[in-house]
C-alpha cells in the first residue's frame, strides 16, 4: 500500500511531500479544499480530530501533525534516500533543537503573515495591518538569529541538510513568492545562501511543480 | 563560557544532585519550559545540576547566556557531549541518549508508539501550548508581576483552549493516556501549563470539570516525578 497525504496544495502538507521525495518513498495525494471547509467535514475529522492538514494514511495507520510525520518516515526509511536525522544521538539532538525552533519561533509569525496576507479576503475577514507589522518584526528577529547561526553552520542542525532545514521550505516559499517579502531573506547574507541551497534541491522543485499553491487572495 | 551565570547550588541541591554530574539545566524551576525538562530528567532517573538564571535581573539576556540560548529563553541544556535548547527537543534527546534508564517507555519502545507520541507532542506544542501559555501568563503570572490583565486576550484564549480540550476529552475517553495505554512524553509535556491553570488560576475547571480530561490530569499530576518538580518550584519562590 502506498502512503496517502492529504491536502497537497497547502504548505504544511508540503513538508511531508518533500520529505517523502528525499527518502525515495512513493506516495499518493488526496485533495482537501480548505476554502470549501472540507477539513471540517465529519469524514475528515475522523482522520484528524483537530481539523487541520496534513494527515497521512499508510494502510490502516493514520498519523497527523506534519513534523511528527516527518520524524516517522525519516526514521522508518533511515537506510534509503537522504539522511535527514544525523548519524549520532548528538547530531539528532541538534536537528531536533532547530526543528523545534522552526515549530515554536519561526512558524507562528510566518503562519500569521500567510493567513493575513494570502488568505484573509478568501476567508472573509479584513487584513489586520498592525498584526502584519508585528509578525514581520517578530520574524525579522528570528531571521537575525538564523543569520548568526548560519554564519557558523552550513545548515541549521549542523553540516548536513536535515529535517530542521526542510521544515522551513513551504512557508518560506510563500514569503519570497506570493507575499513579496523576499527582501527579508536577501538582506541577510547567510540566510540568503542557505535559502538558495535548500530551495533549489530537486525534491523541493518537484513539489512546487506537481502541487502548485492555491492562487493569490 | 557561562561562568558569570553559574551559581553555587544550594545545600539541598548538593545532596540530591551532586556537582560532579556534567548534565546541566539552566533556568528557574517555575518556568513551564524548564519544568518540562526537569520532569523528563526525573522520569528517566538522570542526575543533573540545576543552574539558576535570574530572569528578574535579566540574566537570560546576558551575552554569556545568549551563547548557549540565542533566543534568550530558558531552559538551556548541556552535558558532556552537547549543548541544546528548546525543552521538547531536550526531552527527546534525553529519551534517546538514556533509552535504557528510568522510564524506558517514555518515548515508546517501537516506531508506531513513538510516532503516536510525536503526534501528541506536536498537538501539545502547536494547539495546546499557544492558548494555555497565554492563560498561564495572564492568570498566574501577571498578577504576581503587577501587570494588568487583558480580559479580551483571556477570553479569546480560553475559547481556543476549550476547543482543544474537547478533542482531548474524546481521545481520553478512548485511550488511557494521549498516545496510548502508557504515560508518555506527550502527557508529560502538558504538565507544566496545566499545573498552573489548575492550581494557580480560577480556570482549573476547564480541565477538572471534564470527565476524561479530569481523570487524566489526576493520574499524570500524581506521578512522583511531577510531585518532585512541584516541590522544586516551591523551594525556589
Question: What would a concise description of this structure say?
Answer:
By secondary structure, chain A is an alpha+beta fold. Chain A has helices spanning 11-22, 42-47, 66-76, 89-123, 129-152, 163-166, 169-176, 183-186, 189-199, 202-210; strands at residues 3-6, 27-30, 55-58, 61-64. Chain B: One of its GO terms (molecular function) is glutathione transferase activity.
Provide a descriptive summary of the structure in words.
The complex is a heterodimer of chains A (about 220) and B (about 240). Chain A is an alpha+beta fold. In chain A, strands 2-1-3-4 form a four-stranded mixed sheet, covered by helices on one side. In chain A, helix 1 packs parallel to helix 3 and helix 4 packs antiparallel against helix 5. The radius of gyration of chain A is 17 Å and the shape is globular. By secondary structure, chain B is mainly α. Helices cover about 55% and strands about 5% of the residues of chain B. A four-stranded mixed sheet of chain B has the order 2-1-3-4, covered by helices on one side. In chain B, strand 1, helix 2 and strand 2 form a beta-alpha-beta unit. At the A-B interface, strand 4, helix 3, helix 4 and helix 5 of A face helix 4, helix 5 and helix 6 of B. Chain A: It catalyses: RX + glutathione = an S-substituted glutathione + a halide anion + H(+). Chain A: Its EC number is 2.5.1.18. Chain A: It is found in: Cytoplasm, Cytosol. Chain A: It holds the Pfam family GST_C.
Structural class based on helices, strands and sheet pairing of chain A: alpha+beta
The total of helices of chain B stands at 11
Strand segment count of chain B = 4
What is the residue-averaged pLDDT of chain B? 93
Termini distance of chain B? Answer: 27 Å
Give the neighbour order of strands across the main sheet of chain A: 2-1-3-4
* Structural class category of chain B: mainly alpha
Please state the oligomeric state of the protein chains shown: heterodimer
Distance between the termini of chain A: 37 Å
Report low-confidence residues of chain B grouped into runs of 5 or more. 1-12
User: What fraction of residues of chain B sit in β-strands?
Assistant: 5-15%
Order of helices and strands of chain B: HEHEHEEHHHHHHHH
Helix content of chain A: 55-70%
The largest sheet of chain A is: 4 strands, mixed
**Number of distinct beta strands of chain A:** 4
Uncertain stretches of 5 or more adjacent residues of chain A: none
Largest sheet of chain B: 4 strands, mixed
Compute the number of helices of chain A. Answer: 10
Radius of gyration of chain B: 18 Å
Amino acid at each position: 500500500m502506498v502512503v496517502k497525504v492529504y491536502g497537497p496544495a497547502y504548505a504544511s502538507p508540503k513538508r511531508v511531500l518533500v520529505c517523502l521525495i528525499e527518502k525515495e518513498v512513493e506516495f499518493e495525494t488526496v485533495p482537501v479544499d480548505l476554502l470549501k471547509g472540507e477539513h471540517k467535514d465529519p469524514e475528515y475529522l475522523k482522520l484528524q480530530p483537530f481539523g487541520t492538514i496534513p494527515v497521512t494514511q499508510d494502510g490502516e495507520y493514520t498519523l497527523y501533525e506534519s513534523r511528527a510525520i516527518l520524524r516517522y518516515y525519516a526514521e522508518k526509511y533511515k537506510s534509503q534516500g537522504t539522511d535527514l536525522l544525523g548519524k549520532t544521538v548528538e547530531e539528532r539532538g541538534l536537528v531536533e533543537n532547530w526543528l523545534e525552533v522552526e515549530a515554536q519561533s519561526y512558524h507562528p509569525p510566518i503562519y500569521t503573515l500567510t493567513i493575513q496576507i494570502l488568505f484573509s479576503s478568501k476567508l472573509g475577514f479584513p487584513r489586520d495591518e498592525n498584526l502584519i507589522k508585528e509578525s514581520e518584526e517578530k520574524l525579522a528577529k528570528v531571521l537575525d538569529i538564523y543569520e548568526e547561526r548560519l554564519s557558523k553552520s552550513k545548515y541549521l542542525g549542523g553540516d548536513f541538510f536535515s529535517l530542521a532545514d526542510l521544515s522551513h521550505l513551504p512557508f518560506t516559499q510563500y514569503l519570497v513568492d506570493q507575499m513579496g517579502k523576499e527582501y527579508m531573506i536577501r538582506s541577510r547574507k547567510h540566510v540568503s545562501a542557505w535559502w538558495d541551497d535548500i530551495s533549489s534541491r530537486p525534491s523541493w522543485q518537484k513539489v512546487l511543480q506537481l502541487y502548485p499553491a492555491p492562487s493569490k487572495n | 563560557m557561562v561562568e558569570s551565570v553559574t551559581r553555587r547550588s544550594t545545600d539541598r541541591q548538593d545532596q540530591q544532585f551532586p556537582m560532579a554530574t556534567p548534565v546541566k539545566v539552566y533556568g528557574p524551576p517555575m518556568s513551564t519550559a524548564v519544568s518540562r525538562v526537569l520532569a523528563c530528567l526525573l522520569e528517566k532517573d538522570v542526575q543533573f545540576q540545576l543552574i539558576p538564571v535570574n530572569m528578574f535581573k535579566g540574566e537570560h539576556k546576558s551575552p554569556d547566556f545568549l551563547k548557549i540560548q540565542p533566543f534568550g529563553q530558558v531552559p538551556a541544556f548541556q552535558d558532556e557531549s552537547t549543548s541544546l535548547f528548546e525543552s521538547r527537543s531536550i526531552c527527546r534527546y534525553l529519551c534517546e541518549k538514556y533509552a535504557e534508564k528510568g522510564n524506558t517507555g517514555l518515548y515508546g519502545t517501537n516506531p508506531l508508539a513513538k510516532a503516536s507520541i510525536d503526534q501528541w507532542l506536536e498537538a501539545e506544542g502547536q494547539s495546546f501550548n499557544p492558548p494555555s501559555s497565554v492563560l498561564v501568563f495572564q492568570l498566574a503570572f501577571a498578577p504576581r508581576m503587577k501587570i494588568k490583565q487583558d480580559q479580551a486576550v483571556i477570553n479569546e484564549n480560553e475559547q481556543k483552549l476549550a476547543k482543544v480540550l474537547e478533542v482531548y476529552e474524546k481521545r481520553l475517553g478512548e485511550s488511557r493516556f494521549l498516545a496510548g495505554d502508557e504515560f508518555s512524553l506527550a502527557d508529560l509535556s502538558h504538565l507544566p501549563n496545566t499545573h498552573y491553570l489548575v492550581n494557580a488560576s480560577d480556570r482549573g475547571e476547564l480541565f477538572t470539570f471534564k470527565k476524561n480530561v479530569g481523570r487524566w490530569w489526576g493520574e499524570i499530576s500524581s506521578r512522583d516525578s511531577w510531585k518532585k518538580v512541584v516541590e522544586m518550584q516551591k523551594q525556589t519562590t
